[in-house]
Amino acid sequence: MKYYYWIFLLGLATASTLAAQTPEKLQGAVIGTTLCVDYDHDNAQTTTVNTAVNLFDGNFDTYFATWQRDEGWAGLDLGEKHVITSIAYCPRAGQEGRVELGVFEGANQPDFGDAIPLCVIPSAAPAGQFTEQAVTCSRGFQYVRYIGRRDVRCNIAELAFYGYASEGDNSHLGQITNLPTVAIHTTNNQSITSKEIYVKGIITVIDGASIHSDSLDIRGRGNASWNFPKKPYRLKLYNKASLLGFPAKEKNWTLINNYGDKTLMRNLVAFDFSRRFEMSYTPAGKPVDVVLNGEYVGTYQLCDQIEVASGRVETDKMSEKDTALPELAGGYLIEIDAYADSENSKFYSNQYSVPVTIKYPKDDEIVPSQAAYIESYFNTLERALFSPIGKDPVNGYRKYMDTHTFVRHFLIGELSGNTDTYWSVYMYKRRADDLFYFGPVWDYDIAFENDNRTYPINQNPNWLCTSTGSWANGMRSWVFQWLSDDALMTEIKTTWAQYRDAGRFDVDSLLRVVDDYAAEMNASQELNFKRWNIMNTLVHQNPRILGSYVAEVEGLKTFLTERVAWMDKKLQYTPKPTGVQPIESPLRLSIWQGAVHIDGLLERTEITVYDLSGRRVMSVVATGSCTLPLTAGEYILSIVAPGKAKETRKISCR
Q: SS3 string of 503-516?
């Protein structure tokens, strides 16, 4: 009897739990913008009234229209936390398009400072009836609201929220699309209008079940890009974090707007080139959806801030006490910078007035002796470059400059067709090391045939950097001097051949990267170009209008295909015949950020990846070379080639 008794109680508990989680239409106190407008056409006057309650009166003929063009919103205080399962909405009659890109948010603070998006309205909806949209966020919220996009005054007739009372959990949180979502709310919805003055707020980064929230300071950033309607931002978290699993755990991050890049991926493709060339540091970056103060503002690139830090530019840290050698000799991070005039910590070289910004030590940390040292040492490089023995391999410019990183930086700039390669050049110096190193690569939004000043690039027989490219003052002379060095040109040709032979710049491989980014961003780009209706408009330096995202992506792919052939011809490279594989080709393994690349594979080599617990992560069969995308962590590779003993390697991917 006791046995059946407990079964009965279990049944009641299960039934009760299911009943508690049955979605129902939710009720609560109406909250929102209190100053709204009702226009009397007969008397040509406006009367301010609180019409937020009209959204919940069951009448499709009444509506909520705010007095403010921006920041109007309305919602419910549900009294306790509820998991929202769906939302229904109806636009004001005659204003059906104004709900497009409206955002629904849930929060547990009445000021919505901790809000995260529940969903976005993807397109216009019919008036006079509800359109229902599912919500897949598992967290419970006490406060829910609707925010219309900028400049539409909301103009919505009815709202309804459905769900059930529950604390919920973080097993699945709301994202705008398949991309990670970055939601930022500034204190009192304060606008971000300055590149110098930070505004305080809260950031929430959502990637499936992963969520990171923190207080932050946010300001504008960029040069030409700051003048676009879609603004770029600099983020400073209160606590160091590795956002989206990026290698660096730091406070400083950037949101790149890519406004004039209608593929939204040119920077990311250039970063891929950097990894293929095995540059010591490539900025980490991923496409994300951004919601700012409840407004959907488009597809951005969440990216590292270029700085000296572990997982970023890894050079020696200094303090204000380091005022004598050897500590004084490094490390430093500098930028040859055409915009140096607007910076605080800067100098100009003696011979050619090359403008240089000192990025590290930072403006508020550097002391006069450090600034004087790096300026003097940069001038030493310049003197050596232009001296009568400048090309001497021992006592010329090579004594002060690493040609290994210069060559790769040069090839990335030319392969991508980047107008600004020598408009901005990052360089760094380590302690107890006489050399300046080039990198990281940065700012490629007008590369890949996206600049009317250099279009069409592939019809130009000359290097872009010596013909139609842009230069910071004096840099054209530097570039011509470098390229007049036959030994350096030989190194450029040899390096290109090395990486072409290894399959790193196989055209099909490069096009797959573009296709993968296009597929990843497809849902997001549709919303982005609704928010920023520029697809049929020339913006920034666009050389042409292609009319669609698909056409823009195809244009990038066409350029890449032609550019690799151009580089092969320019550098006198002859591809090896396909199918030729040395029988005893040594296995070569390299790790790029987020991927492991293996060359020298015999025909139909089996590769299996295990984590350290022994769980199989992936298996592939490949010939020649292959790339394995892996998240950060340690793995065991098992490599079995026909007729060969199994080879096992432990790797660390970050």
A: CCCCHHHHHHHHHH
161 CB-near residues (< 8 Å, 6+ apart)? 25, 26, 76, 78, 82, 84, 87, 144
Q: Return d(Cα 518, Cα 529) in angstroms, integer.
A: 14
Listed residue (473, 468, 463, 408) closest to 438, CA to CA:
408
Let me know: does 66 contact 33? Beta carbons within 8 Å: yes
Full residue range of the structural domain in which residue 142 is found: 23-165
| Cα(11)–Cα(205) distance, integer angstroms | 39
> Do the domain assignments include residue 96?
yes
Identity of residue 136: T
Query: Is 174 within 8 Å of 83 (Cβ atoms)?
Result: no
- The low-confidence residues of the chain, meaning pLDDT below 70, are 1-20, 34-50, 70, 577-588, 590-594, 599, 603, 612-615, 624, 643-645, 654
Q: What is the pLDDT of residue 38?
A: 58
User: Where residue 44 sits, what CATH number does that domain have?
Assistant: 2.60.120.260
Domain C-terminal end among 465, 482, 501: 501
CA distance 652 to 654: 7
Residues 6+ apart with CB under 8 A from 72: 32, 33, 36, 64, 66, 147, 148, 153, 154
Q: Which one, of 568, 308, 264, lies nearest residue 444 by Cα?
A: 264
Domain boundary among 440, 469, 501: 501
Distance CA 638, CA 647 (A): 6
Going by C-alpha positions, the residue among 317, 400, 394 that lies closest to residue 362 is: 317
